[in-house]
Design brief:
The chain has 12 helices and 8 strands. By secondary structure, it is α/β, with parallel strands linked by helices.
Amino acid sequence: MPSIETRQQHAETFHRLHTGPAPLVLVNAWDAASARIVERAGAQAIGTTSAGMAWTMGYADGERMPVDELLAACARICRVAGVPVTVDIERGFGDSAQAVCDVVRSLVGMGVVGINIEDGVLPGTRQLAPPEILCERIEALRRMDARLFINARADTYFVANDDPAARYEDTLRRARLYASAGADGIFVPGMASLEEIAGLAAAVPLPVNVYAGHSKAPSVDVLARAGARRISLGCGPLQAALGVLGRIAAEAFDASNGGFRTMAGEMLPASEINGLFASAH
């Protein structure tokens, strides 16, 4: 467990990273090794990917992994990370605001300084959860920890909607409600229009988080000019890593010309990987 002073410093740093001049870019990690690789590459903070963590533990995305496994994975990341850590907790891994606070309290005890929490889809339906549910959870989390960075995610672009204008207005409404409840940032994955991103950034007095974990994502500077203050790659890096693994396996299993060219061209020396954890306890 990090010292209180270290967590306070990381919390202040993480808040400051959302104020510029450049946006905070999160190359999201799914375990301790990926967290250290990302940090070594220059990450100013580590964000987790809920989908990536679920997949690597053998579960589908969508709060299907047991919360104890989520917490254990986060503890391993916090043990090796030297920069602020923020965790994606989906809808909160709890059926009440108190249950969500209990999960987050465990994360804070590890040194976590931020969370993503989403409104999401009501279980067993294709309907977005009422924003009041997430507002209640944000308010409870804010009372629990004044410095926790709460990144509120609106899933308005993940449900079918034949009226783009109405969807955008619902996004603005939810973002404003979450801001009033005490959120520190707004995340709208699926919002790809630069015009809409700029409109959201102008209409909501909080840093806007954009998802860029897909092949059509604009560059960092283009997103920054549109008003993005935080750019997340989400599960994109793991999807790419699994794609490389698939090519390595296909080459090795090729009956006529089995080889290891892709593996040999991408692998890091074992000594270099061991060095990532030389100071970890």
